[in-house]
Amino acid sequence: MAYMSDSTGTQSWLGEYFGFEEHGTDLRTELIAGATTFLTMSYIIIVNPAILSEAIRIEGYSQQEVFQMIAIATILASAVAILVMAFYANRPFGLAPGMGLNAYFAFTVVILLGIPWQTALAAVFVEGVIFMALTYFGARRYVIELFPAPVKFAVGAGIGLFLLLLGLIEMNVIVQYEATLVQLNDVATDPVALVALAGLAFTFILYARDITGAIIIGIVTTAIAGWGLTLGGVVDRGVLAPAQLASPQYDITPLAGAFLDGFGQIEPATFVLVVFTFFFVDFFDTAGTLIGVSQFGGFLDEDGDLPEMEKPLMADAVGTTFGAMVGTSTVTTFIESSTGIEEGGRTGMTALTVGGLFLLSLVAVPLIAAIPQYASYLALVVVGIIMLQGVTDIDWENPAWLISGGLTITVMPLTASIANGLAAGIISYPVIKTTMGETGDVRPGQWVLAAAFVLYYYVSAGGVISGT
C-alpha cells in the first residue's frame, strides 16, 4: 500500500507540474509517446559519431575510440537539450545533433576546407551563443524576414540530396569516375554494397509499413548481417565487420573542451561563413520542424504560430552550445518527434522520457562502436529521401522561386557544401525579383546578404579559402 501511495503521489506531482489535465493526457500516454519518439530518433546515436569520426582525429586514440567519445557527446548534448525542452518549454519534442549539419561539419568544413575540427566546434559554439541571444531578446521574427522564402523552403531538400549522395558513396553504391564524376559501382561483386543495399531495402520496407524505429532496426539488422557473414567465414574480417574492436572508452576529456583550442586557429572570413551556415540551417530547420510537429499536435494558435516559441528555440540553442563544449555538431529539434505526438504525447513529460532513454543508452556505447560504417550510413539515404518532401512547398510556377529554390537544392550536393547552395539561392532571389519588376518585394537586408555571398564566391573561387 505504501508503494501504491508513493506511485500515486509521483503521478499526481508530475501531472500537476506538466499539466496533464490541461493537455488531455496522462503519465502512461506520455511514457509511451516518449519511448516511441526515442525509438524513431535513436539512430542518431550511431550515425552522428559515424559521420563526425571521419573528420575528428585525436592523437593516441583509434577511430573506434573517438567514435565512442562522440557517441557519448551526442547522448549528453541530446539529453541536456531535451531536459531544457521538458522543464523550461514543457513541449513533447526530442532534440539531438542534426542530420545534414553533421555532414557539413565533417565533410565540408573539416575535410574539404581543411579547417581544424577544434575550430569547427568553436564555430558551433559561437552559433549557439548567437542563437541564445537572439532567442532571449525575441529577435526571431526579424531574422526570419531577412531570408528569401524559396531558400527557406528549399534548404531541406538540398540537404536531403547532399545526405543521399554521401550515404550512397559511403555504402560503396556510387564511386568516383573521371568522365562523369560519379557512377554506379560494380555492386554485384562488392560485399559492402550488396549488404548495404539489402539493409537499405529492408529499411525502406519497414518505413513504408510505418514500423516504429524503422531506421534503427534497419541499421542494427544490417550490422548483424555483416557480422554474421564475417563470423560464418563468408568474407574476411575487416570487410563487413571491423577488423578489431576497441575497448570501452568513456573518458571524453580529449574531446570535451577542444573547442577552446579552436579559437586560436581562426581564419576570420572562413570562420564567419561557417558560423553563418550553421546558424542559418539550424535556425530555419528548428523553426520549420517546430511549426510542423506543432501543427500535427494542435499546438498552434489561430494565427498559425506556436505560443511561446522562444522557449523550445532556447532548448535548441542551449543544446547546441553545450554540444560544442563536449564535442559534437549543432543540436536541433527532430521531426521524428511527430511519432510521439501521434501516440498522444502533449507535454514535457514526453521529452523527459526521451531524455532519460538517451542517458540509459550510455551503457550500450561499446556495442554501438561495433556497428560497421556502411550500416550507419544507410540512415543518410533514408533521411535524405524523406527530406525531399520539402519541394512541395516551393511555388515552381513563380520564376523567382523556381530559380532561387532550384539553385539552392542542386548546388548543395553538386559542390558538397550547404553554404554554396545557400549562397546561390540568396544571390539569385533579389536579382530575379528585380528583373520581374518586383523590386518592392526585396528587403534591403536581402541585397546586403546577396552582396556578401558574391564576395564569398569571389574569395573562394580565387583560392583564398583553402581547400575549395
Automatic annotation (TrEMBL):
One Pfam family of this chain: Xan_ur_permease
Transmembrane segment boundaries: 31-54, 66-89, 95-113, 120-139, 151-175, 187-208, 214-235, 271-293, 313-335, 347-368, 374-394, 401-427, 447-465
Keywords linked to the UniProt accession: Cell membrane, Membrane, Transmembrane, Transmembrane helix, Transport
Keyword Disulfide bond: no
Subcellular location(s) of the protein: Cell membrane
Bilayer topology: Multi-pass membrane protein
Gene Ontology biological process terms in this record: purine nucleobase transmembrane transport
UniProt main location, coarse: membrane
Cellular compartments per GO CC: plasma membrane
This protein's record includes keyword Transmembrane helix: yes
InterPro entries in alphabetical order: Azg-like, Azg-like_bact_archaea, NCS2
Family: Belongs to the nucleobase:cation symporter-2 (NCS2) (TC 2.A.40) family. Azg-like subfamily.
Official protein name in the record: NCS2 family permease
Organism this protein belongs to: Halosolutus amylolyticus
